[in-house]
Design brief:
The chain is an alpha+beta fold. It has two domains: about 1-190, no CATH class; about 195-270, Alpha-Beta Plaits. The protein is about 60% helix and about 10% strand. The protein is built from nine helices and four strands, in the order H-H-H-H-H-H-H-E-H-E-E-H-E. The chain has helices spanning about 1-30, 35-45, 50-95, 105-125, 135-145, 150-170, 175-190, 205-215, 250-260; strands at about 195-205, 225-230, 235-245, 265-270. It has a four-stranded antiparallel β-sheet, with helices on one face. Helix 1 packs antiparallel against helix 4 (about 105-125), helix 3 (about 50-95) crosses helix 5 and helix 8 (about 205-215) packs antiparallel against helix 9. The longest helix is centred in the N-terminal third of the chain and has 42 residues, at about 50-95.
Length: about 290
């Protein structure tokens, strides 16, 4: 139940943020944009009487069918919410005077639009969903070619912006390209973000005492690695553990208390899944 609530909450919030960024910054400032919104802005050159929300509904349905065909029923099921929610959010926000609320220079508006939209898209992708739009082709590339979603999104969005340039001229082009690039960066950062964690490798003759200290006093998981020292060729064990960055000083001090000469290597990690992080540490195995 908790996972379902997290999924629905993330998809709803992500679509709200995406629709808000477009109606509050992109449309009022006349920016060109990638994604389904960019396609709809280009289509409005030929269908000026149709609202953006109606065009969005049509485009997301087409992309939904594409996602169903290439990514399977499970992925399509996760896109249903966005396929319905996004046009509704767009229709809601486009009738509010949001453009008058955020009067700032174009660069500031471009940055805010990028961060809000990228964070919204990233939230949805992070929980395995889809915004029901142009993140579907990048997800297809990630599945079959291993290309990161944010990277291919920059390519697709750039192509869509180019079409808008051909139709409407180069006014606002630089700001629009900045938005395309920043959205891709923010999406990648959001998808792998989480509370900062570090992985620690500890090499010491007192590895058993250090392991006991980590497991008991620090409540930190530990894995023993078989290693061989380079200078003497002696077989030994190293302690490997992952902990939140804020706990690192306590772990380091606990290790050095056992062995002041312990060799400690620490590196940042982007995302951690498993017991103690995404699963409660002390749950029983099924």
């Amino acid at each position: 139940m908790k996972q379902k609530l997290k999924f629905f909450g993330s998809v709803l919030l992500g679509n709200l943020l995406l629709a808000f960024s477009i109606c509050a910054f992109v449309v009022p400032c006349g920016f060109m944009l990638g994604g389904t919104t960019g396609i709809c802005l280009a289509l409005q050159a030929f269908l000026p009487g149709l609202p953006l929300s109606v065009l969005s509904a049509f485009v997301v349905v087409v992309l939904f069918i594409l996602g169903w065909a290439c990514l399977g029923k499970q992925f399509a099921a996760t896109s249903v919410m966005s396929t319905v929610i996004y046009p509704i959010c767009m229709a809601l926000f486009e009738h509010l005077p949001l453009g008058d609320l955020f009067k700032a220079d174009l660069l500031t508006c471009a940055i805010f639009a990028s961060v809000i939209a990228g964070f919204g898209i990233g939230l949805v992708i992070r929980v395995g969903g889809s915004t029901g739009g142009m993140d579907i082709p990048p997800c297809i590339l990630q599945k079959y070619k291993g290309v990161p979603v944010g990277t291919s999104m920059i390519f697709f969005d750039g192509a869509i912006v180019l079409v808008q340039v051909l139709l409407g001229g180069t006014e606002g082009l630089l700001h629009s390209l900045l938005i395309v690039f920043l959205i891709g960066v923010v999406v990648n950062k959001t998808v792998v973000s989480g509370e900062n964690a570090v992985q620690i490798i500890i090499i010491s003759p007192e590895h058993d005492k250090i392991r006991t200290q980590l497991l008991s006093a620090m409540d930190t998981g530990a894995t023993m690695l078989n290693i061989e020292t380079g200078y003497t060729g002696q077989a030994q064990k190293a302690v490997f553990c992952v902990t939140y960055a804020k706990h690192y000083p306590r772990v380091r001090d606990a290790v050095l208390k056992v062995d002041p000469k312990a060799f400690i290597v620490t590196t940042d990690v982007k995302n951690v899944n498993g017991r103690g992080y995404t699963i409660a540490r002390h749950t029983e195995n099924p």
